[in-house]
Amino acid sequence: MKALISLSALAILSLAGEIFGFKRQTNVLLIIGLLVTLVLNFMDWNTNISYFSNMMQYDNFSVAFTGAILLCGLAVVLLSPHFFKVVETSESESYAQLLFLMAGGLLMVSFSNLSMFFIGIELLSIASYILAGTDKRNLYSNEAALKYFLMGAFWSSFLLMGIALVYAAAGSFDLATIAAYSTKGNLSGYFYLGTFFITLALAFKVSAAPFHFWAPDVYDGSPTIVTLSMSTIVKIAAFGAAARLFSYALYPAMPSMSKIWWILTALTLLVGSLGALQQTSFKRLLAYSGVANAGYLLLGLIAANNNANNALLFYLIAYSVATISAFAVLLLLSYKYDDENGEHFKGLATTSPWLAAAVTVSMLSLAGIPPTAGFFGKYYLFTQAIAAGHTSLVVVAILSSIVSIVYYFRIIINMYIPDENSLPTALELPFVYKIVLIITTITSLALGIYPSVLANIL
Amino acid sequence: MLLLQTVQALPSPLHNGELSIDAYIYLSAILFCIGLLGVLLRRNVIVLFMCIELMLNAVNLLLVALSNYHSDPAGQVFVFFVMLVAAAEATIGLSIVVMLYRNIPNTDVDIWNRLRN
Predict the structure, then answer these.
(1) Using one digit for the tens of pLDDT, what is the confidence trace for B6-59?
(2) What radius of gyration do chain A's Cα atoms show?
(3) Are B103 and A137 in contact (CB under 8 A)?
(4) What's the first-to-final CA gap in chain A, in angstroms?
(5) What is the tens place of the pLDDT at every residue in A386-397?
(6) FRET label pair with A114: which of A155, A331, A364, A388, CA 20 to 30 Å apart?
(7) pTM for the model
(8) Contact A115, B81 (CB under 8 A)
(9) Among positive and negative, which fits the CA dihedral B21, B23, B28, B33?
(10) What is the CATH number of domain B20-107?
């Protein structure tokens, strides 16, 4: 709760920076503020207090997911200043939107009432519509904002319909009351219909197939720093919200919806990996890789229990860390070349061996090769899915990860083959990028070698 | 004529002389579907926008009716949240439309499909 208040205060502070003219200091203020927020957040560990007459509940689940969101936000804020030198947008307004987005994410992982869930998802979505369109003169950014907005608003009305139908059956928005109603048995049809609508809306939010069409376009069109926050923060928040909703309240509806989940998960895995195979742009490749990774994460949602949530958290952290380091290198390349093609990765190792090493670790982690975090992330998710009796889905997931090795390794191989067009000098590597890349690479490796640190925290 | 017969064959929405909850659920489902079809069929960005608002308001109607049915005020409070969010969404949506219109003066959504290839 303290974390949420502190985050909202920081968002207002960065808006005030625009008015009172301390824009230049905003970045430093935010970095300090986010570190303080992280500390405040972890002070709530093991307290389990509910706030606002049971509207929100800060248990270990929400503290852990909040921590992940805050760390990703910190990485985005650290990487931002160099980006805003290249793209002409108002820096402190973008920070304010990013922080509002994170505040929405915090609500989404700590709600215990469906109204807070709705407010959180809308706060997150509205901030991300604005962020997608921050590059106002760029037609691609415009298109990304329009597509994201129309699709997002359309699916949020489905979410709302789902909530209303669950309310029709259970007579309350409170998660505990809904859980009590749904475990009683003899559920009304409205409950199943409502759960189905909520599932569809969340499937859109996490970019699961067949609702993934927006993802590559929006990820590609948005400014790169926004793509980074959408593929890490939004993903963590959306999966956190889904895990919380299904494992706290809607789990009795899961067995009867297992066919829908099967189709959703299998399709997401296949579409994500097969789509990524055909991409030449690195940003689009990461977007499709995000779709494929959403498929693995859906495996963790189906089980809808505490161990599965822990596996979900582990994989989300592994995925986010790898994505942050890939995007940091992409940002560095985009400053030099002014575009985001995968082409420029060719021969990177000859001029900047350390950057190439960081990208290699991140690609290995995304592909799930030991000793990286991604391997154990997948291992835990697969174990949970098998325990829940979805062996056939795990087979699909393993096939999909075999396909994914092809496109992740294509990038690694490109980097290590000397190219005649490769850079004459090494890329300029600012200090903060160095710090972020070192931390993400070490985290990827450390979680791969000592997975037990995060394996049983929830 | 057939339509009239079908309507007459539906279970009566009157329950002890009052409208039963089913009538409200049917009405809001119909409104929701009109909005849904509008989003799928129309291509003008402003009309799309209105259709999405219609979908949201269909749910508002349902929430108010259910709140009365369950005699639970939470549903009506939720409607205030939804109206607030819909207003915020309308603001953002219209400003996105204005931003687009400055770059390409057209309100057809189909011209915005450069990213696909």
Answers:
(1) 666 666 656 666 778 888 999 999 999 999 999 999 989 999 999 999 999 999
(2) 21
(3) yes
(4) 18
(5) 998 889 999 999
(6) A388
(7) 0.93
(8) yes
(9) positive
(10) 1.10.287.3510
- DSSP letter (8 states) at residue B10: S
What's the Cα-to-Cα distance from A237 to each of A20, A149, A254, A334, B34, rounded to whole Å?
A: 32, 18, 21, 28, 31
A321 with A440: CB under 8 angstroms? yes
Query: Which residue has tokens 């699916």?
Result: A155
Where are chain A's structural domains? 2-455
Q: Residue by residue, what is the 3-state secondary structure of chain A? A: CHHHHHHHHHHHHHHHHHHHCCHHHHHHHHHHHHHHHHHHHHHCCCCCEEECCCCEEECHHHHHHHHHHHHHHHHHHHHHHHHHHHCCCCHHHHHHHHHHHHHHHHHHHHECEHHHHHHHHHHHHHHHHHHHCCCCCCHHHHHHHHHHHHHHHHHHHHHHHHHHHHHHHHCCCEHHHHHHHHHCCCCCHHHHHHHHHHHHHHHHHCCCCCCCCHHHHHHHHCCHHHHHHHHHHHHHHHHHHHHHHHHHHHHHHCHHHHHHHHHHHHHHHHHHHHHHHCCCEHHHHHHHHHHHHHHHHHHHHHHCCHHHHHHHHHHHHHHHHHHHHHHHHHHHHHHHHCCCEHHHHCCHHHHCHHHHHHHHHHHHHHHCCCCCHHHHHHHHHHHHHHHCCCHHHHHHHHHHHHHHHHHHHHHHHHHHCCCCCCCCCCCCCCHHHHHHHHHHHHHHHHHHHCCHHHHCCC
CB A271 within 8 A of CB A278: no
User: Could you tell me if A349 and A415 are in contact, meaning their C-beta atoms sit under 8 angstroms apart?
Assistant: yes
Task: Enter the ipTM.
Answer: 0.88
Q: Residue A88 pLDDT > 90, yes or no?
A: no
From the list A115, A149, A168, the residue facing B66 with the nearest CB is A168
Are residues A144 and B93, on separate chains, in Cβ contact within 8 Å? no
Residue entry with tokens 């990304």: A144
Residues of A in contact with B76 (CB under 8 A): none
**For residue A325, which amino acid is it?**
S
User: Coil, helix or strand for B3?
Assistant: helix
Q: What is the mean pLDDT of residues A215-232?
A: 91
Cβ count near A78 (within 10 Å): 22
Q: How confident is the model at residue A429 (pLDDT cuts 50, 70, 90)?
A: confident
Q: Which of residues 62-91 of B touch A (CB under 8 A)?
A: 62-63, 66, 70, 72, 74-75, 77-78, 81-82, 85, 88-89
Count of CB atoms within 10 A of residue A41's CB? Answer: 24
> Testing the interface with B: which of A160, A166, A190, A200 to mutate, by most B Cβ within 10 A?
A160
The helix (H) or strand (E) run that includes residue B18 is strand B18-19
Contact: A172, B74; criterion CB under 8 Å: yes
> In degrees, to the nearest 5, what angle opens at C-alpha A296 toward C-alphas A441 and A282?
55
The domain segmentation of chain B, as residue ranges, is: 20-107
H-helix or E-strand containing B14?
strand B14-15
Largest CA distance in chain A: 71
